[in-house]
Fold this protein.
Amino acid sequence: MSSAAHSPRHAFAGVPLGDRARARTVALNQLLLGAVVLVIAVAGYAEGLPGDEGLYFLGVLTIFVATAAAIGLPWNRLPESASAIVPIIDIAAITAMRESTPGASLGLLWIFPAMWLAGSFALPGLYFSIVSIPAIFVASTITSVSELTFGTVLLPIAVVAVATTSYLTARRSQLQRRLLDNQTRLLGEALARARQQEETLTEVFDAVDFGIIRLGRDGRVAVANDAHGRLQLAMEEDDERPPAPVFDRDGITPLDPRDQPLARALRGETFDDRVVWFGAPGENRRALTVTARRLHDDAGADVGSVVVSRDVTAELVAIRAREDLVASVSHELRTPLTSIVGYLDLVLDGELPPSARRGLEVAERNANRLLAIVADILTASVSARSTAELSIEPSDIDVAEIMRSAVELHTPRAAERGIRFDVSGVEPAPAWADPARIRQVLDNLLSNAIKYNVDGGTVEVGTTSDADHAWVVVRDSGIGISETELPRLFDRFFRADAVRKTSTHGSGLGLAISREIVRSHGGEITAQSRPGAGTTFVVRLPAHRHAPEVEKEVSS
């Protein structure tokens, strides 16, 4: 067996921390008493002892032997109560020393074992100290002192006070240690729960197919999931390749680095579903939709932002293919429809029997309706690609004049059903807009107000302006639309359930096109409706070339 087996470190290997502390407490307490007795013994030997030297040195030797035992014995392997034998032996040894020299006040040494017993062995140790030591003192004092004085009883009182104080101090320390242990345990459990929750969140974040990145207040990345890393792989540059070029939603317009989603998030901006393309046209490119939100603590202070990105390449490619197909089919339909309408016009200009004329007029109306639907589909397919592709040529106009002209056009059709126009709210409304496109919007709103109105109903129209915007209001007394369907009113090809059950025809594209036109001008169109109470449309347009615009992500 090697010498390392006898080293103190090996002896305590695998021993609980509390047991090692008990062995150390025994050694330190006894060493303190042994050092004091050593000093007293050396001084007594140098000056000479007036009493019984044999009894004196027997007590000193007993304390030294107890000190050696306190240091050498493995108290960590013995029962906890076994170490109490050492201070009890000390009490007996100090009694022998005191009896050998009654006038030397050696009884003060009883304080050391009394403190040890009371501090380390709780109430049993305290009771033993305050009973045994005063009893020994009283027994020895009665035989040697004829008259009791305050000085005579001062020593046992001091021993009792010191032992009691030691007990209370140890008890307080024990309670504090127990409280600290409980707090440590609770903190450990809280830390374990926090780690488990963190692991769970990490697993969830890494399992989803959209990227999540948490930016701190200083702009540094605090959290990022695996999906974010995969998505960003196509965006970031490395030593072998330059960064992928970034394009706007249309996939053609280059995006300035300052307008890229991450740069905007770092500036503290928030936005929804910002679509960007990474990679040049014709390459293996990727489209992401990015959303950014600011984060705040309980006090409301800004603590950073979270950016969520999702790969929508397949969706946009599918939508583009569908729009290409629709546009191709629409182009192929428009040419023969145009020829049909033209030849019908030529035939109707001639002399025809009444029955033949009525049939041809029905054919012409339906051909014109089909031609209008094809035109709407073509416009929708163009506007779906990008609002920038819409032909917008704004100028200073008066929306009131366009409104009056549109009302005049639709009045005959409204009169067929007894629907009346109320134009009392039409006021001058200067705007910076394309007159042809705004006329297209107004024609669509007025057409819907007539189409989905009730017989004998009314259509109220109004125009006005303020310092920054021109406003258009179209309100009908028609069938209205439910609250659940209202958010989809401007979706392409959407038609309400109540309308689909009637004979009223429509493509479901007019409002979608109107919104694209209005937003292309930097404005907005909204609708309010209740079933049976009609529908109100409000259009906001810029009044001037540089009119302030409501900050909103449009078609992004």
About this structure: The longest helix spans residues 150-207.
